[in-house]
């Protein structure tokens, strides 16, 4: 079942009219004033979009507008670490003994987390979103990067298998041989 010729002519005519409108530098919506905040938000997103393709730009803007304000899951999960453990996002617990030997003026500032999970997540999410990823993909990637940052800075590192000396020497010799052959 195919569309009639009249439907196709109307569709082509509409596309041609839209194309003519956009040939003026793509600034069709620059002088529009709106009273509705939602419409203003869409207009602002549209003017900030860097995509050249009009359809891609419009779809990206609408998706950004619809998905604004949705918070990634990683912010909601708060993991309390034992006092003897920490990572880049946790506040350092300083004992009285450590306080007595620290040479800092402000122990409270010294004990603060190096990075704030929420702020870093927003920065990463902003970068991922600007790379034209869809919002859900950007959120998933951002969440994974935050989890990787937590895991890679967790102290003390989990030690699973400690190799015997002979096994370690054998591994190092194999590694050196592979470098020499390269």
Plain-language structure description:
- The protein is an all-alpha fold.
- It has three domains: 1-29; 32-68, no CATH class; 69-159, no CATH class.
- It has nine helices and no strands.
- Helix 2 (37-48) crosses helix 3 (54-67) and helix 7 (117-130) crosses helix 8.
- The longest helix has 19 residues, at 135-153.
- The radius of gyration is 28 Å and the shape is elongated.
Which tags fit this structure?
182 residues; mainly alpha; 3 domains; 9 helices
Topology summary:
Layout: H1 5-22, H2 37-48, H3 54-67, H4 73-76, H5 96-101, H6 107-111, H7 117-130, H8 135-153, H9 165-181
Strand content: under 5%
Head-to-tail CA distance between termini: 63 Å
- Summed over residues and divided by their number, the pLDDT gives a mean of 79
Name the helicity range.
55-70%
User: Per the principal axes of the C-alpha atoms, what is the gross shape?
Assistant: elongated
**What sequence of helices (H) and strands (E) makes up the elements?**
HHHHHHHHH
Low-confidence stretches: none
Taken together, the total number of domains comes to: 3
- Main sheet summary: none
Counting H and I runs of at least 4 residues, what is the number of helices? 9
Query: What would you call the structural class?
Result: mainly alpha
- Computed over alpha carbons, the radius of gyration is 28 Å
Number of strands: 0
Counting copies of identical and different chains, the oligomeric state is single chain
């Amino acid at each position: 079942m195919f569309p009639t010729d009249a439907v196709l002519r109307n569709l082509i005519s509409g596309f041609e009219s839209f194309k003519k409108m956009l040939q003026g530098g793509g600034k069709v919506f620059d002088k529009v004033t709106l009273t509705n905040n939602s419409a203003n938000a869409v207009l602002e997103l549209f003017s900030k979009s860097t995509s050249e393709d009009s359809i891609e730009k419009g779809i990206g803007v609408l998706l950004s507008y619809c998905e604004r304000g949705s918070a990634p899951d990683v912010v909601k999960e708060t993991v309390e670490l034992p006092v003897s453990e920490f990572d880049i996002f946790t506040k350092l617990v300083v004992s009285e003994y450590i306080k007595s030997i620290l040479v800092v003026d402000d122990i409270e500032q010294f004990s603060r987390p190096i990075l704030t999970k929420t702020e870093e997540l927003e920065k990463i999410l902003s970068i991922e979103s600007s790379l034209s990823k869809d919002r859900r993909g950007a959120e998933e990637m951002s969440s994974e990067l935050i989890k990787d940052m937590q895991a890679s800075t967790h102290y003390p590192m989990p030690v699973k298998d400690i190799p015997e000396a002979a096994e370690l020497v054998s591994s190092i010799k194999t590694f050196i041989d592979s470098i020499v052959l390269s």
